From TrEMBL:
Its EC number is 3.1.3.16. The keyword Kinase does not apply. The keyword Mitochondrion applies. Coiled coil: none annotated. The gene is Pgam5. This is Serine/threonine-protein phosphatase PGAM5, mitochondrial. It catalyses: O-phospho-L-threonyl-[protein] + H2O = L-threonyl-[protein] + phosphate; O-phospho-L-seryl-[protein] + H2O = L-seryl-[protein] + phosphate. The lineage of its organism: Eukaryota, Metazoa, Chordata, Craniata, Vertebrata. Pfam families: His_Phos_1. It comes from the Eukaryota. GO terms for molecular function: protein serine/threonine phosphatase activity. It comes from Cisticola juncidis. Its main location: mitochondrion.
Amino acid sequence: RREPLALINLKKKHEDTGEEELSSRLDHCKAKATRHIFLIRHSQYNLDGRADKDRTLTPLGREQAELTGRRLASLGLKFDQIIHSSMTRATETTEIISKHLPGVKKISTDLLREGAPIEPDPPVSHWKPEAVQYYEDGARIEAAFRNFIHRADAKQEEDSYEIFVCHANVIRYIVCRALQFPPEGWLRLSLNNGSITHLVIRPNGRVALRTLGDTGFMPPDKITRT
């Protein structure tokens, strides 16, 4: 619902100017800027934690977040904001990354929390959540996609660079949806901890994937995907 034609009332057309006025109004609704979306998977965390608050980053996970933060800072981009999942491991990863990006505001959201986005096809034997989880988590994760992954607003004049720190399932689903691939294939993708996935959304709404799960900036002995 961000196509220029969807943003104007076609019934309101001046009798004299006709198509000229329509063209002018369409131009006013067209996006001008490109959005760069950097999706960061949280770093390695304590799998033995029973509650979310206990699933804190491991020492290696903290190292990974430092490496990711340095990598993002080295790109020399003017980041607009960091939006992160409210889960502990994503919040801690964000805090470490943000030290390398001083002045960039941080926003926490429940929409980006980990979950089961949609039943995978083909199915896997090692991961079978309750069916109700797909309905609960799926609606939320789809809402996150619709809320965050879209072309720039027509009022945005300059290209933007945004960081989203969240989880593997969420990122994989968003990538499939953004590229218009069957979302049921999300589990065929694999993402390392602390990895960077870069989506580009052009003013016409087209999306390109620049990188998927990049950890080439990490030494081999620091790479995990648990």
